Amino acid sequence: MAEDRRTRRTRKALRDALVGLVLERGYASITVEDVTERADIARATFYSHCRDKDDLFTRLTKDLLDELGARQRPLIAENAVGFTGKPVLEMLRHAEQERDLYRIILRGEGDGKPLRMFVESCVRVTAEEFRSRSERNGVEPRINPGLLARAWVGEQTAVLQWWLEIDDPRPPAEEVARMLLDLAVHGRYWASGFDAPA
Amino acid sequence: MAEDRRTRRTRKALRDALVGLVLERGYASITVEDVTERADIARATFYSHCRDKDDLFTRLTKDLLDELGARQRPLIAENAVGFTGKPVLEMLRHAEQERDLYRIILRGEGDGKPLRMFVESCVRVTAEEFRSRSERNGVEPRINPGLLARAWVGEQTAVLQWWLEIDDPRPPAEEVARMLLDLAVHGRYWASGFDAPA
DNA sequence: ACCAATAGCAGACAGAGTGTTCAGTAACTC
DNA sequence: GAGTTACTGAACACTCTGTCTGCTATTGGT
Predict the structure, then answer these.
(1) Can you point out the beta strands (E) in B57-154?
(2) Which among A83, A134, A155 has CB closest to B151?
(3) At what angle do helices A32-39 and A5-25 cross, to 10 degrees?
(4) What is the pTM of this model?
(5) What does the alpha-carbon distance between residue B72 and residue B66 come to, in Å, rounded to a whole number?
(6) Between the CA of residue A11 and those of A27, A39, A61, A165, A182, what are the distances in Å?
(7) pLDDT in tens, chain B (198 residues)
(8) Are B98 and A160 in contact (CB under 8 A)?
(9) Stated in angstroms, how far is A9 CA from D30 C1'?
(10) In the structure, how far is the CA atom of residue A1 from the C1' atom of nucleotide D30, in angstroms?
(11) Using N-to-C axis directions, what is the helix angle for B5-25 and B53-79, rounded to 10°?
(12) What is the distance in angstroms between the Cα of A156 and the nearest Cα belonging to chain B?
């Protein structure tokens, strides 16, 4: 038996209501009643789906991460050989589709819990990617691998957030991915316009 | 007339109580009464100092940023010539002194508002630094300057957070600063152990 | 087309937390 | 020491939470 149509409709309505309201007014200031009212759902029904507001937000985040993971997985294998930049590009595309949910997560709504889930998930993937690339190419990292992974994820996350908050003519995902790749390969010094390392 | 001693004591107690509690239980789950109880202050007194919990947290963040700004300002001028890495090092030192407050801000507590204040402040400083360095050295950035500043701040922030959450033998601030500088100059490709750009 | 299962509804409930007020008491500054 | 000011403790109405109730209407399976 597939999921009941009513359940599907309700979950979708709750999701849209939460995302929209958080985007407009901020997570802390919205009540469960605000959500149910916008979703056009009885308050009691809310509680038959989630324990509370946090629980709803956490589920949405988890689903998003699962979906992102599924889309990135096939690209990560080939990326382990050289830097293809494909996993990042895929993330940018996914983020553009799910823009509003990404925005509220990246803003740190919900006391940063969803953001931490997001970052942790990226770090796991990245650390594994780095490790397998090192091994495959027989090279040793020159700086602390923990720091390296965090730095890269931090860079991605910050750029992603910046990019998603631009609303009118956003640079295309491909261009942003290319800039991130340039930054990775040549460093910030080069990117600022300098030619030789200090 | 200097600030009343009672006021000073109360503010300090509120600060310590808030920071401690948020660190232990998370921002959303603590009440004003929790704070006043730990601070050993009447609840009414709380409201004579701040409008609400958010207001208190925001003030603490603002004060922290002012202090950080004051410490970095003299170092930024000389950094505009070459990359000295001194402003970053100063931030690391400041963060180590004010570790717990930094930690809760960086975690995104308070729906990420303090974190956004922090990031925005860093971006302002960084963008200005980049701009003046370009001008002084007659070079043009090779990639979008907005992205560049965000990426650098994102990297710093992520590393800072990672570093502050390590509790036992934290690598010294100087070492972390050096790694960040290496990353900036040579890029992540080099840092992973590869020799030549792809 | 029907029927059992189940999702959703409206409304009521106690309990917790908020933000304000106020008269009384202590501590501080000068 | 006198006058000012900060803190106290208790009470207030209010909002939001999370749970529970009996009732209704959709739904998926056969």
Answers:
(1) none
(2) A155
(3) 120
(4) 0.95
(5) 10
(6) 18, 9, 14, 26, 41
(7) 568 999 999 999 999 999 999 999 999 999 999 999 999 999 999 999 999 999 999 999 999 999 999 999 999 877 766 678 899 999 999 999 999 999 999 999 999 999 999 999 999 999 988 888 888 888 999 999 999 999 999 999 999 999 999 998 999 999 999 999 999 999 998 999 887 655
(8) no
(9) 25
(10) 13
(11) 90
(12) 7
Closest-CA residue to A183 (of B161, B63, B187, B142): B187
Q: What is the DSSP string of A87-127?
A: HHHHHHHHHHHTHHHHHHHHHTTTTTHHHHHHHHHHHHHHH
CA–CA gap between residue A155 and residue B32 (Å, rounded): 36
- Find the CB nearest B159 among A111, A147, A157: A147
- DSSP single-letter state for residue B193: T
Closest residue by Cα to residue B88 from B183, B190, B181, B186: B181
CA distance B33 to B12: 16
| Most distant pair of Cα atoms in chain A: their distance | 65
- Strand D interface, protein residues by Cβ within 7 Å: A 1-2, 4-6, 31-33, 43-44, 47, 51-53; B 4, 6-7, 9-10, 40-45, 48-49
CA distance A1 to A117: 31
Nearest to A150 by CA among A131, A129, A122: A122
Q: Do A183 and B148 touch (CB under 8 A)?
A: yes
Give the three-state DSSP class for A27: coil
At position A23, the amino acid (one-letter code) is L
Can you tell me the distance from the alpha carbon of B104 to that of B4, in angstroms, rounded to the nearest whole number?
29
Residues of A in contact with B25 (CB under 8 A): none
Cβ-count burial B58-78 (b if 16+ within 10 Å, e if not): bbbbeebbeebeeebeebbee
Helix (H, G, I), strand (E, B) or coil at A3: coil
Which residue has 């553009």 as its token pair?
Answer: A96
What is chain B's length? 198
**SS3 call for B175:** helix
